[in-house]
């Protein structure tokens, strides 16, 4: 959810000379704008979940449970949480693509400069808004807010400013593993396959061992999605790569199991909405299928320029939409008396507008400067 979708040709360049194209590898199509669009779709899925697919603080914003606000759609919205798993598949694809041919320093500079500027501003912005007397939601302590600027609040046990930041902690651990086992020794097909197979096997063993430290490092419930996306990048390089297809298939089979195990809640009579096993598996399958279609070039015609903007808005939108969305929902629905559907649409639109402002005013000027500083360029 934090990646910039780069062109295939740029990803295969960098400090190391690109490897000869494997047999069956197609020509680089340039920027994968369909991947930009898919990222925004996944972000909107998560927003639908946060606004209408769950209870909690958003109930205070609406004045009643979203079940009553969206009596028909609330169950559909409850599947939006699977947008996170779709993000992780995309992340596996993009991180492998962008890390191919990079030095560790360049990879680190790319990731930090992509993640941090918008994140810092989002943390400050949400903390400031929640500190306003007119806002009913409790702000975190000043100390915890400062810890949040490191993005390490979860392992340190501090309160989170942004509810969605738990996924960033998952992403950071994926970046660390990929940097250590692929980028540091130098990316190539064999090394990526060994990384994927080794991580997948180790994550399964970690789950069987019930060892918290192994779970922390190997992330069994999320590893298959990153690994599946990485396998699909190898498919993108060579669609006839049987090993890459095998990695992807096994990752899907294990990933859907974890998703069902975590999110299937039919047995819970107090659940906000009851997701079905079929529905969960279907959403996960569609996520894998969408990235596979992009990897195979089937969506190369989906090349509209506005998708680049959509992809650029995804990360800042993801950061700010939940907590600030509560404030907007409260103001529009309870303050101005707008209908639920109008409030939902206007809240999403306002968060997209804020995301555009963050992209233009924060990311565009600061990301290249931070990348250059971390890369040692003057």
Word description of this protein:
It is a single chain. The protein is mostly helical. It contains 17 helices and no strands. Helix 2 (33-52) runs antiparallel to helix 6 and helix 6 packs across helix 13. It is globular. Mean pLDDT is 91; it is low at 4-29.
Layout of helices and strands:
Layout: H1 8-11, H2 33-52, H3 57-62, H4 66-69, H5 74-78, H6 83-99, H7 104-130, H8 142-148, H9 153-156, H10 165-183, H11 189-209, H12 212-218, H13 223-237, H14 242-263, H15 277-295, H16 306-335, H17 340-375
Put the structure in a nutshell.
The chain has 378 residues and is an all-alpha fold.
The helix fraction, in percent, is 55-70%
Reported for the largest beta sheet, the result is: none
Order of helices and strands: HHHHHHHHHHHHHHHHH
The number of helical runs is 17
Radius of gyration (CA) equals 21 Å
Give the termini separation. 29 Å
Q: What is the averaged pLDDT score? A: 91
What share of residues are in beta strands? under 5%
Q: Based on DSSP secondary structure assignment, what is the total number of beta strands?
A: 0
Helices and strands: which structural class?
Answer: mainly alpha
